[in-house]
Each structure stands twice: as structure tokens, then as C-alpha cells.
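Sample 3 of the quickstart, ligand (R)-mevalonate:
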Amino acid sequence: MAALISGFSKLTKTEKIDWLAQNFLQNTKEAKEILRTYWNSDEKLQQLHDDFIENTISNFYMPYGIAPNFMINGNHYTIPMAIEESSVVAAASLVAKFWSNKGGFTAKVINTVKVGQVHFMYQGSKADLERYFSAKKDELYRATKDITKNMEKRGGGILDIELRDITSHLENYYQLHVTFETVDSMGANFINSCLEAMANVFKNNEVEIVMSILSNYVPECLVKASVSCHVDDLHPTDGALFAKKMEQAVAIANVEPHRAVTHNKGVMNGIDAVVIATGNDFRAIEAGVHAYAAKSGKYKSLTKCQIKDDVFTFSIEIPLALGTVGGLTSTHPLSKLSLEILGNPSAKELMQIIAVAGLAQNYAALRALTTTGIQEGHMKMHLVNILNQLEADAEEKEKVTLAMKGKTVSYSGVVAALEKVRA
Ligand code: MEV
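Result:
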């Protein structure tokens, strides 16, 4: 067991690695080599990455791929995706191409309102608190003037400040529920700074501030995307049956949370990949989207499927609080590149693109699940991954791939096939 260490953050990177190797790693030489292999040879770029977080000792790469042929609201996009899971980018590309021949995706931002709250305890009379709030409201706005000045120039700022009584759920608990427009920035720092400034002027002997923080539940920062076509255009032989199965798949996810979680995980395969590639906060998006999926009190599908007069419509409605300026979006070279690939979109346009990526991914998953099964698509990449793990060379890979054709890919099966080739 390693001894506790103090002053760790003050050690140099090499000293941190030495400490780690001595205390936790078996083959210290090899471990140090692995960490160094992932350092960037461009020192300035490495320093940039070192400075993103604390105690950086290396970089953790993720594959960065692109899915071309997306048509959204009549415009063509190639969507960058950062994801480690095989088949996701391929599925996105296939679905994009499929729908681009049928008018493409339609997407619309419904609203962009973001939320922050000052949570506080108050034991006095509610009427007194309401009077105090009314008297203080202007001062709350004034307290944030320096922070909101620039945001207001860009068309954003504080939309409203509301006093909310939550005492029926928790004794003495009230909040200032504040709504914001943050235009093209995700706005986390802006919102939190505003809230802390408000809390400072709102607190008194009776108002006991507990915390001030933005909410990642943003049901009013909403975007909708859909695709639609005649059922006959969905499938070469039996479009009506295919459409029905898709409808049933969504219906199952609406009544069965076990399935809904996996269904929505497929949606998030597309969403997270673009959120990460554009330098946005995927934990915030994940938390907000899943809460939205459970807004009725039951966890349900994020997508909808409708067949009406032989027209199939597949759609999604999700909250996405995104930014295209500030934070990592403006500092990580690959995030900047991703945004450039997307034509430097506004936050609203990015909401539309990312909603489409989620919808496309869900369409691909349900199409596979209700027809061939999911494994067919996964097997090819699974085989490549196993062969890489077994350090097969190019010739061995080719021979094993041929030998495995039509067979279910399992680790032991691939080992056996490779042994045969090597023999
Ligand atoms: C795998 O990453 C995602 C799926 O499980 C989604 C789904 O089941 O709908 C294929």
C-alpha cells in the first residue's frame, strides 16, 4: 500500500510518473515508456493538454472519424466523431447516405433557455421572503452587470429571476430559479458567476445560502430532428413490414425501461461522439438527456416513430446545452477543426447537427436489430480488434479474416484460426 503523499501537485511531470511507477506499477520501465509514447512531440501542444487538467502525466487518445453525406435542412455536412466503439461511424455514414436520397433530415431548435439556481434555506414567513425578493430583484440584476455586459452585447443575458418555494419537498428550502440565454457559448462559467454574484447580495441573517450552480437539466434548451418518407422507400422488398418493426421497437422502449436505456444508449453513441469532437461537455449532455427521457416519471425512448397514411416518420426531441465559442471549443485544436469541418456553426446549428447524429444512430441500431441482428455489423470490427490484440501481421489478418467468413467471431475461434495460419 502506497503512503499518502502531500504536495503531489507541485512535483514535476517526471517526478509524478516516478512516484506512480514506484508505488503502483510492476514493470516501471515499460509503464513509463507507454506514458511517454502518448506525449506529443510538439511541446507547445503538449503543454496545452497538460494545462487542461491537473496532474497530467500523458494523453489518452480516442479515434477521431468522420461520417460524410449528412443532409440537414437542405445543407450537406460531414460530421466529425470522437468515439472508441466500432461500427458507430460506419452506421452514421450509411444512414446519412440512405436519408440524403430521401430529402435528408429536418431539424429545428425549439428553445435555448438555460437554467441556474441559488439554493437557500429560510425559516421565516413566506410572505416576508416574497417582499424581500421583490425589493431585492433589481439589485440582483445590478450585481451581475459587469458579468452580463459582454453577453448582452452578443444578444444574451439573464432572462428572468424567480423565487421558488420548495418547502413542500424539503423543510425551509427555497431557490432563486434563474433563466439565461447564453447565445453561442455553453455558458457554464457565465451562469455560475452570475449566480454567485446574486447569492452574495441576497444572503442575510435569515437567508442561508447553501449553493449556487447551473442546472444541467435544461428541458427548455430543446431541439427536434426528424426524417420521413413513404414506407415503400424504406426497404427494397417489404417497406411496410420494416416500418412496423421499427415502430414496435420504439413502442417497446417506451414501456420497458431495460430496453429504453439500451435504446437511448444507442442514441448517445451518436450524440456523445460529436459532443466530444466539438469540445463540449458530454457529462452535462448525458445527465440532461437522460433526465429528459424520464420527465414523465418513467424512463422512455428519446425517439419517436410514426406511420400515418403509409408515411414513416422517425424523430427525436432532446435538450442539448452546447457551445461553439469559449471553453475547450476554442482551445483544443481538434475541437476547432471539428467546428470548421461543420462550417463553424452557431450553437443552434450545432444542436441540430448533434440531434441528427443521435437520431441517425438510433435508426441504424433499430434497423440492424429488427432485420439482420446487431452482431453482423459488429463482427467485422470485433475480428479486427481481436487480431490487433493478438498482434497478427497484415498477411495473418487477411488469412484469418478469410477463414472466419460466415462464422461467429469469438476470441477462442480467432486464436484457433490464427494458430492454424501461423502453423
Ligand atoms: C450499442 O452500442 C448500441 C445498441 O445496443 C443500441 C440499441 O440496442 O438500440 C446497438
